[in-house]
Amino acid sequence: MWRRAMVGCGLLVVGAMAAPAAQAQDQSFGVTLGYFTLRSEDGRTAGDVLNANRCIDVTFACEPLLFDVSDFNGATIGAEWLVGITDYLEAGASIGFSQRTVPSIYEFVENDLTGDDIEQDLKLRLVPVTATIRFVPTGRRSAFQPYIGAGVGAIAWRYTETGDFVDVFTGDIFRASYSEGGTAFSPIILGGIRFPVENSFLIGGEVRWQRGEGSLPEDFVGERIDLGGVTYQAVFHFRF
After folding, report:
1. C-alpha distances in angstroms, 83 versus 28, 64, 132, 202?
2. What is the pLDDT of residues 49-63, one digit of tens each?
3. pTM here?
4. How far is CA 35 from CA 94, 117, 202, 206, 209, in A?
5. 26 lies in which domain range?
């Protein structure tokens, strides 16, 4: 059901942004700077690789890695284009970028020969491309502009594990690199507030929620990766 709603919303956004410029009240282009937080450990999808790496929600032999899901939270940057539809509605298109590399070690296993920790780097990159429709109840020309919106997103992602690993059956240590990527489709829900500055600039803050999953091959201990989370960001727009 929600997939049909995503398709319908996406078609609405595309149609609105393809309308002649003369029908638009105005347009704006800007940048966003923020902080992305992944869904927490207890809310992640079944089979999620981050939980599986920590031996959570698994049914097979496992040695946990020492890190926290929140270690993947980090800075985001993006660009956004908004087009007025009416005095109270606008369509938007945006692209964002975030990347985080998290060092980890085996929690209970070390190298028997050297006594050193067995180390890995876990890296997650996200590039969400989104289309949204927003409602501004006070009007798009008011001095105080709260808004809410919804839309669809295509999240290009890549997840990589590189370093030394332990065979849980033999105890052997081996070096390897595993990588997988793809595109996950996600509903988008957002809300924020902004203020015009001398009619040419808009500044404000926004909270944006996304949900998406990617599939992983058998090389990984988890079969999926949960890409859902919340972005808290500042917005800076130039109106033209």
Report:
1. 7, 48, 11, 14
2. 999 999 998 878 899
3. 0.87
4. 16, 31, 20, 11, 12
5. 2-239
